[in-house]
Design brief:
Largest sheet: 8 strands, parallel
Helix content: 40-55%
Order of helices and strands: HHEEEEHHEEEHEHHEHEHEHHEHEH
CATH architecture: Alpha-Beta Barrel
CATH topology: TIM Barrel
Low-confidence stretches: 1-28
Strand order of the largest sheet: 10-9-8-5-4-13-12-11
Strand content: 5-15%
Number of helices: 13
Radius of gyration: 20 Å
Number of domains: 1
Mean pLDDT: 92
Length: about 400
């Protein structure tokens, strides 16, 4: 901790100067975010960021009386210097769906997504929009294959999502519907809106019928080509957690607890149409029973290897797209979480200033006040948890400095 604060003081002179700067910081305006070699760029200059996840925004905004919660999070995030938000652009079947059935959409929910994008634009925040879930929350792959079954398709497993022609067409149609949507508030088609930083094919894709990653690789190639045929302005990423696969068997030992989920960090991200890689990490879930120090040692090794492989093998930027510390974990305290975030942010910053490659991190997850039903243990309410908010703000300041 002492090292962290000496690092801050060395750069900004004092904490008061730092916080004053953060309050004034805004994301550079105008233009689409792109990549150049292993760096994100905006208007020809490097683009580094500190960001967050708030997956729930469209669903909450579907109730006009609740939209203030979306605005409040964007307001508080901007005050903390956060400039990128990852959120869902899907809700398939079930409660308050965007896509009621294949090709059948609820216009009110689409208008809620319009609102999310317009508010992000208002507060100078870029969005990473995910297009489907791997899990059954908000529908996901299970809902798509159920739709296929209902249409008479011979489907035996959720992994048929990746191979069944009709189900794949359902997904492609959803992608097209979202990307070509005309925002009723801004008047801008989504695929023409620079508020969107990137599209994400799927939140945490997994495939248990083929652990080699090859089956998933075919799907990624097909869908990435489809996305780019509709939109060549925006960046595209897969949505992966970062597990190593058959292409690098020597690196499987880096996966936590021998995890293999049918993904391959190297081959899946080498696809030409994929513009940058992502990793996620939840040491408290992945390594239960291990000490905080052991979990931090794993996390550092996880980041070291993915940074090196993104830089030297993929030759693409990487984003640490999900990480956090759960309040449900035994022995949790706010100070332990702040220390965890400090360590994570230190690594992100040090990698970023050492020639780029890692563009930033997205903490999981930021909520507004009065959102107890969305608590998952990882929730952070910036207006209530001030020490954590300060840690986040300090990282935002450091990443902003790198842009200059």
């Amino acid at each position: 901790m002492a090292f962290f604060f000496s690092r801050i003081n060395c750069i900004c002179g004092s904490l008061m100067i730092l916080l004053a700067f953060v309050c004034e910081a805004t994301v550079p305006s105008g233009g689409f975010i792109g990549t150049q070699n292993t760096q994100f760029v905006l208007n020809g200059s490097p683009f580094f960021f500190n960001g967050f996840n708030s997956y729930w925004m469209m669903s909450v905004a579907a109730d006009p009386n609740e939209r203030y919660k979306v605005s409040n999070v964007f307001r508080d995030a901007t005050a903390a210097g956060l400039t990128v938000c990852r959120t869902w652009a899907f809700s398939d079947g079930g409660y308050r769906p965007l896509q009621i059935s294949p090709g059948n959409y609820d216009e009110k929910v689409f208008q809620a997504l319009d609102f999310v994008i317009s508010e992000a634009q208002k507060y100078g925040i870029r969005l990473i929009l995910s297009l489907v879930n791997n899990y059954n929350d908000y529908g996901g792959r299970p809902q798509y294959v159920q739709w296929g079954k209902s249409a008479g398709q011979k489907i035996s497993d959720d992994d048929d999502f990746y191979t069944n022609p009709m189900v794949k067409e359902y997904y492609k149609n959803h992608v097209k519907r979202v990307l070509t949507r005309l925002n009723t508030i801004t008047g801008i088609v989504y695929k023409d809106d620079p508020t969107v930083m990137a599209w994400e094919l799927m939140n945490e894709p997994r495939c248990k019928v083929d652990y080699s990653g090859k089956l998933l690789n075919v799907w990624i190639q097909e869908m990435a080509t489809h996305v780019k045929s509709l939109d060549n302005k925006h960046l595209l990423e897969v949505g992966m957690e970062g597990f190593y696969g058959d292409s690098t068997p020597e690196k499987k030992q880096i996966n936590p607890n021998g995890y293999e989920f049918g993904t391959d960090f190297i081959t899946n991200n080498l696809i030409k149409e994929i513009d940058f890689a992502t990793i996620h990490a939840y040491p408290d879930i992945w390594l239960p029973g291990q000490s905080n120090n052991e979990q931090l040692t794993f996390l550092q090794r996880w980041m070291d290897n993915h940074w090196a492989d993104s830089r030297g093998v993929l030759k693409k930027p990487v984003v640490f797209a999900e990480f956090g510390k759960s309040k449900k974990h035994p022995g949790f305290s706010i100070s332990i979480r702040d220390s965890f975030l400090n360590n994570t942010y230190n690594s992100i910053y040090n990698f970023a200033r050492s020639g780029g490659t890692i563009g930033g991190g997205l903490v999981w997850q930021i909520l507004a006040e009065e959102m107890e039903s969305y608590y998952d243990g990882y929730e952070i309410i910036l207006t209530q948890e001030l020490s954590t908010s300060k840690v986040i703000s300090e990282q935002s300041h450091l990443m902003t400095i790198l842009n200059h």
